[in-house]
Amino acid sequence: MERGAAIKNYRNEWKYQCNEAELIKIESLVQNVLERDENSTGPYTIHSLYFDDVFDSCARDTSDGLFKRFKYRIRYYADMPDKLFLERKEKLEGRCHKKRCLITGQEYDRILAGDVSDLMWETDKELLKQFCVHYLKRGFAPKAIICYERSAYAEPITNVRITFDRNISASDEFDRFRNGDYLRTPILPEGQNLLEVKFDYILNSTYRRLISDESLVQSSFSKYYLGRCTINKKER
Question: Residue-wise over 71-84: b if at least 16 C-beta within 10 A, else e?
Fold first, then answer.
């Protein structure tokens, strides 16, 4: 490791595909133990625009189960398209690390237009600079919009977060991303949803019991990969 390099905190991220009845049951238990996420008072919508290179390496790495991989996305919440986050999400042996920075609407427009050569030198945001390098060297481009409704609960002391994602959909109408009026195609069968449990090292037995339903099966669920499959199927 280089001297002075920051040690990344990789978190566990357990995912379970559930039907609506299972999700309602677990959420009712979670509500008795955890508080709503500090940034929300109820369900909210997440809009994410994912990028990939000319070889679709991010999608292929996910499909192949590569133990070390990453992907970039631009995200905004609810109806706040002026508050844009550029994120790089890394996976290492099933654990995740996320880095993010705010970007301006002008920076977003330049990225979508492919005008990143000058942006790379002008910005003082480390993550944006890194993204621009990959954009130029590997031919990154928008590949999928993923949208869903999330209810989130958290315990800040132990850094546990449990989320419930419904109505997960995909779109390739990239020019409508910030408007939020893009056409959406579900990526899961009707009534199927996603439960995610995120924690640092060891999940407390109290929280473990909340998800101990014998019908739950942990899976390596990727919204981006399933979204790409959905888009490709629609285009045939």
Answer: bbbbbbbeeeeeeb
pLDDT tens digits for 187-236?
999 999 999 999 998 898 888 888 887 678 888 889 999 999 999 987 66
- Looking at the structure of the chain, the number of domains it has is 1
Dihedral over Cα of 79, 18, 231, 119: its sign:
positive
For residue 112, give every residue at least 6 positions away whose Cβ sits within 8 Å of its Cβ, in sequence order, or none.
142, 174, 175
What is the tens place of the pLDDT at every residue in 122-181?
Answer: 999 999 999 999 999 999 999 999 999 999 999 988 899 999 999 999 999 999 999 999
DSSP 201: S
Structural domain harbouring 74: 11-235
Q: Classify 228 as helix, strand or coil.
A: helix
Model-level pTM greater than 0.85?
A: yes
Question: Would you tell me how many other CB atoms lie within 10 Å of the CB of residue 108?
Answer: 19
The H or E element containing residue 129 is helix 126-138
Is there a domain that residue 5 lies in? no
